[in-house]
Batch of 3 targets.
Target 1
Amino acid sequence: MGLTFQQVQKYEKGTNRIGASRLQAISKILDVPPSFFFDGAPTSGDNAADGFRDASTVPYVPDFVTTAEGLQLNRAFARIRNPKVRKRIVELVAVLAETEGHQSPESNRELVV
């Protein structure tokens, strides 16, 4: 895509916004529709009065991406070429995150082991 490391960092941290044409290019490279990047985003019916305020219960993504685990996960994920495999991984992580909130701490430890 012709991006410098610094440009990528600015996108990750939210310093720079990704324009529509760049988003289209990224979606082509990843072989996903542009709407993929908006899955789970709030719609106009989801407390529109809140405007652009961040939900306090949702961790800020750039904070995670800059951790060692976030970087490791992103690098490994980027090496996966098969779009179907990438999609299934995203689905798996979503299910794991959803079920984690419904389990006791003891059962969460069992998942880690």
Target 2
Amino acid sequence: MQNTSPNPALDTAPGTVTSPAMTVEGDVIVRKVGRRVMWYLIALYVISVLDRGNLGFASFSMNRDLGLTPQMYSIGLGVLFLGYALFELPSNLALARFGARKTLTRIALAFGVVTISMAFVTGPYSFYLVRALLGIAEAGLTPGVFLYLSYWIPQHYRARYNARFTYAIPCAYVLASLISGLIMQLDGTLGIPGWKWLFVLEGLPALALGLFGIYYLTDHPRQAKWLSERERNWLQNQIESEKKGNPSGHTDGIKDLLKTRIFWLLALGYIGIFCGNACLGAWLPQILHRHDVPLNMIGILAALPPLAGVIGMTLLCRRSDLKNERIKHAIGGTLIAATGYCIVAFSNNLVVTLLGFMVANIGVYSSLAIFWSIPQTFLSAKIRPAAIALVASFGALFGGWLAPMAIGNIQTKTDSLSTGLGLVSLLFLVSAVCIYFVGRRMAIIGKS
């Protein structure tokens, strides 16, 4: 019998895998989902990175007012990721159990309040405490969003949507560079230091976005009233089909996961990527300041590297999707990042340093987006929330907490960032090697 359905591609039976690449209607549905959810996720992440990354600009006067040494500043930079690492797993499990609407909005409201409270720190210890609380508040956001996208975006599209979400990082640094520089010029207004204005004004949008998300977010495709019934069924069938076809579905428990070599390769490989991301905006404003760049120009110059990162990441992630290949492209991103940080480490020239940061931004953002497509692809749906959270926690603990502390210690002893940033470059080389062996293990799993 001839099929008279107006949209035969949407009549896919449950459990049948249809390549979205060959389905025009599927493309339309995924774009519709993207328009609905991506702007909110990106806005949420932009604000979180803005609230986390404004420390580089606040440090000009805050460090002096609070009596912070370079070592103390680095401890504050890193202790955020200690809280982040410790609460990553519970937060991601909460998202899987209670849904994105409750979890992501709770995160937004919490880090908005904590960001504003940064304006009231009085010394090193209160500085450490509030930074740790900010990490706890934000814990689970990044892996939670990548997990959330795996509920909505079929595998064929995932790297490009991961990349669109990752756009939030460079966009946030661009905004932080431009906006934070302007806010810092409020220094002395109403007798309040500029760095306090910075934390208060940049914490308010998180509160607004958290309140709005309570009414806006949808947890799963089957609940999406903004999709037609046929669209909901097609999308839900695609996601369910991918779960059933997962080659590593036999790994259903955390204990089993921790026994697998591929998990530890992913965790070790993520350390360099996380460290590189954490360091992108932490020291660039200080480096520009040391080159006697005026405050009103620091924001403009600091915006150039993340803009380059957006362009490079777009091209590399799009190529990854077109080739349907993750491992080689993720390795390429880590090697680009290693090259960029190496240039920065050994340069004494302002122009060369900026070029090095541009290269590093391209590599960091590309490797970050493509890296998270790997566990989304082969992990079973049951273990995916815990696995993603554990990998993210491992990266946050070693790449976000310990590595910046080591860099600060090196800076204090040598009065130079060169050796510390060289360490970041080395960590990216380790990441490249780990991702290579992840690919080898995935190939073995696929054949078994």
Target 3
Amino acid sequence: MQKTIYSRRHRTIVARLRQARVEAGFKQVDAAKKLRKQQSYVSRCESGDHRLDVVELEAFARLYGKSLDFFTR
């Protein structure tokens, strides 16, 4: 079985994560400050190096004004 971090679905979620940030008008460093994280955290999330849990994804969704469905559909 393929690890989920390498699945097409995971790649779609991280691509939409970046898309949502850009549409919201944030740079990675801006998003990181709002989330009280480092810029490298946002970068790892967007590149797929960090596997997001639901709570983390919800924080990004709230920040970017998106529903969880935006990332998972």
